[in-house]
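WARN no homologs supplied; continuing
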Amino acid sequence: MKDSDHKAGAILEAALPVFVRHGFRKTSMADIARAAGISRAALYLSFGSKEELFRAGSERAHAKTMRSVEAALAGDGDVFSRIELAIAAFQRDLIVPFAGSADAAELFDANMTLAKDITLAARARLVALLAGALADAQARNAITLDALKASPTDLAGIIVAAMEGIKEAQAAGQNLLEDTQLFLRLLRLALTRSSQGA
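OK structure emitted
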């Protein structure tokens, strides 16, 4: 890893809690420089603006998260356990850090404004990875989707859409972890029953 990459990574690590504490609008480059233990001038050598820094942080977080998702889906256990681990990694790395912020909605909006392409690419990759895991399980007769009249890609899209809905419901006081686990238990029950009925 180049020294400049290491420095940029350290700045992005320091910036995350600042954005969580103050929100996007109220966070200044001076706040981030202070948290990173560098001068504003040194910060501007790495990132030309707060927007550029935020986008770089989003890109870094999504790349790291997708590596964790891939590892979870390639691991041991039945398809449901692996999907649960993959979704947990996705939420832990991309949703949970901002969800506790008083400015969570603003931070998620800033992400969609500044890094929409990154976010949508990661979402599409997540759907593809889940669909691959489901297709593999179906090919091994571990599950069947026949009774649901759905393809692995259809079901993967529904899983990701449900995760997004659960994230939005969190603003209304719902519990992200508990609601996600409930949804995944429902998924396991539906696919296990349709497999047994086949």
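The chain has a mean pLDDT of 90.
OK
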